[in-house]
Amino acid sequence: MEKQQFKAESKRLLEMMINSIYTQREIFLRELISNASDAIDKIYYKALTDDQLVFNKESYYIKVTVDKDNRKLILSDTGIGMTQEELENNLGVIAKSGSLAFKKENEAKDGHNIIGQFGVGFYSAFMVADKVEVISRALGSDEAFKWESEGADGYSITTADKAGVGTDIIMTIKPNTEDDNYDEFLEEYRLRSIIKKYSDFIRYPIKMDVKGQRPKADTEGEFEEYQEEQTINSMVPIWRKNKNELTQEDYDNFYFEKRYGFDKPLKHLHISADGAVVYNAILFIPENTPFDYYTKEFEKGLELYSNGVLIMDKCADLLPDYFSFVKGMVDSEDLSLNISRELLQHDRQLQLIAKNIKNKIKSTLQSLLKEEREKYEGFYKAFGRQLKFGVYNDYGANKDTLQDLLLFYSSKEKKQVTLEEYVSRMPEDQKFIYYASGESIERLEKLPQAEIVTDKGYELLYFTDDIDEFAIKMIGTYKDKSFKNVSSGDLGIEADEAEKETEEEANDNKDLFAAMQEVLGDNVTGVKASKRLKSHPVCLSSEGEVTIEMEKVLKAMPNGQDVKASKVLEINVNHDVFKALKDAYATDKTKLSLYTSLLFNQALLIEGLTVQDPVQFTNDICKIML
To answer: Can you spell out the DSSP letters for 135-202?
Structure first.
């Protein structure tokens, strides 16, 4: 038969397919194997309604054969085969889906759904082959036909010889170029790895002749090479098994086999959903943080399968960023796939799956927090920062999802506590959730500003992570209780008699405080008598939304944002230092200036802020020693 031309639109599409439509050439083998699996499925369907046809699963398989000498890669199946007309219709017109039409006519009753788009996936072979031959014999026919093409120029169909029913696809692999190594598709180990990666869970055996070595008979220390047929794929995916058939070891082994991590998973979720969208999933919460987790190189996402065929290595849309640490896979028969099987046409199904997965992860973490606290605290040490970032990100849109998963160190309990635990034991007269923010628990336990709060018997939360205060600002209130930094201006604590005396001192020494503020200039927005200090002489407090700790974090960022907190220098009027200040104000304004600078720098150091002029600071210390 003379060569026939592809239709114009098919020819253009084929040229795109050959050049660019797939992101990785290795995909071709996945496509052809999926089509072969579809062809065997079709016999299975026919056997359901045809009493003359017996489906013996052991008789059906897919075989991959390599002929290196002739640069040929052959993929054979024992499926339903194609007539001459079907070869013409399925392979002569790209995107004509024999499988899709068959699926519409024969809806699966037992989950053996057909996934192929034969006319599309088949042409991916031309990414690696400069010539493709298809020899096929249809079920119930004594005749076989050969379809042959060298690409976009056209194809021919002729009669052929074939002993049994099924299809052989013979690809003549392209020669290597300076940029491209096509030899890899003739290497046994490479083909095996591609099959394991994409087609491990195809339900029929995928066979290959595999070379090996064994001790030579009747000799010592000598080996001989041999070749045997092996089944490469595992066929039955773990996620399609009943949960009661599986042990923890089975899940751990799956985690290691899929290389989700080098640690042992902390928890697994096995989901079998059969509602608005049907899918199976196995998800893992890792024990340790991946080495690149907090870098730009880290890619989140779950493996996405359609009926056991891998279509995406990392589907980012299945996980919110704040749960990006979760590893695992999702398999759904409800996902309709486009030409490359890499992009999804129906986002709605994907969104439903993602929403369900998000809720399942949250409920699993809540159970872990409630029932296995020690395990949860280990998880939180590794990934708590990500949860807090999730609260802060998107302007707090996810705070309701995440706020009950957060932990902070408690001044009273001397351990990590939840916000709910904190609020549940608040005294009736306590108005706010109090916290202190700084570099370490050790420093915060000595913070002068916290004295009045702890003296009242109130519990403090210690924020030691740079994201903590930003996240809390997004939460705003928890169970109708606002958050209050112990360094903020108004702590909402009723004044006692001692504090009333402080107010009197403040009124009596307005001029002193004004003089001190003049010395400090723009470094502070005010100097005042402190209502919070008990034993310490001085501290800094802040006014407005930006706290001192937030200023430190923002300044440390790569873009170096020049954001400043409105700082107030607070003086303990009941401390001996205050008497020295009053004396200096009355007798020696130079000494007052010296004392003021020293106290301000002292307050900066307490906060972990940088002293503006270290040389001047040390000189000032020397002056008071003389």
So the answer is: EEE-TT-S-EEEEEE-STT-EEEEEE--SSSEEEEEEEEPPP-SS---GGGG-HHHHHHHHHHHHTT-
Helix (H) / strand (E) containing 366: helix 347-371
Say which residues have a Cβ less than 8 Å from residue 625's Cβ, sequence separation at least 6. Answer: none
Given the DSSP bridges, would you call strands 62-67 and 206-215 parallel, antiparallel or unpaired? parallel
**φ, ψ dihedrals at 22, nearest 5°:** -100, 140
Tokens describing residue 347: 């986002």
pLDDT one-digit tens code per residue, 231-258:
999 888 899 888 998 999 899 988 987 8
| Residue 524, C-beta contacts closer than 8 angstroms, at least 6 positions apart | 517, 540, 567, 568, 569, 600
Beta bridge partners of 214: 224
Give the amino acid at 363: S
Q: Is the pLDDT reported for residue 338 higher than 60?
A: no
CA distances from 357 to 125, 269, 326, 353, 409 (A): 36, 10, 10, 6, 30
How many C-beta atoms surround the C-beta of residue 549 within 10 A?
25
The residues facing 568 across adjacent strands are 526, 541
pTM for the model stands at 0.75
Q: What is the CA radius of gyration of the chain?
A: 36
Residue 505 pLDDT more than 90? no
